[in-house]
Amino acid sequence: MRKTLILSLALLAAAPVIAQQASKTNAPVMGGDSTGSATHSTLPADGEGLYRGVCQSCHMPDGKGGTGAGTIPALAGNPRLTSSAYVILMVGQGRGGMPGFADLMTPAQIGEVARYVCTHFGNRCQGDASPETVKRVLASISHRPA
């Protein structure tokens, strides 16, 4: 329930950016399915657009995170962001109060936003973020024993 609420709030905050991106590409605006929910086809395809449309509502435009009802980790200069696999894992599966976006984004989109985070805000991650790598990283955690 909490994860759904957080994801819903992130999408609500992202709606203006998604609409702006869609108007530039003649893509459909939010609601690629019969429930009116956002789908991977209604999100931007590039890392910066994905960050602006989905991530910056919590992590802020400058990647510095924030505090309020909870603490949102800074992405800017974050010492944990040294591996693209770690960023892929966080974006795809989430952790703590952050929802995972593997059900909303394609592996290519997760790779794009991971690549963006890994090359911006003073970060320099090692490893690639290709769709194949995203699939491999996310599959590796789904096979771990509970």
From TrEMBL:
<feature type="signal peptide">
    <location>
        <begin position="1"/>
        <end position="19"/>
    </location>
</feature>
<feature type="domain" description="Cytochrome c">
    <location>
        <begin position="42"/>
        <end position="121"/>
    </location>
</feature>
<protein>
    <submittedName>
        <fullName>Mono/diheme cytochrome c family protein</fullName>
    </submittedName>
</protein>
<dbReference type="InterPro" id="IPR051459">
    <property type="entry name" value="Cytochrome_c-type_DH"/>
</dbReference>
<keyword id="KW-0732">Signal</keyword>
<dbReference type="InterPro" id="IPR009056">
    <property type="entry name" value="Cyt_c-like_dom"/>
</dbReference>
<keyword id="KW-0479">Metal-binding</keyword>
<dbReference type="Pfam" id="PF13442">
    <property type="entry name" value="Cytochrome_CBB3"/>
</dbReference>
<keyword id="KW-0349">Heme</keyword>
<dbReference type="InterPro" id="IPR036909">
    <property type="entry name" value="Cyt_c-like_dom_sf"/>
</dbReference>
<keyword id="KW-0408">Iron</keyword>
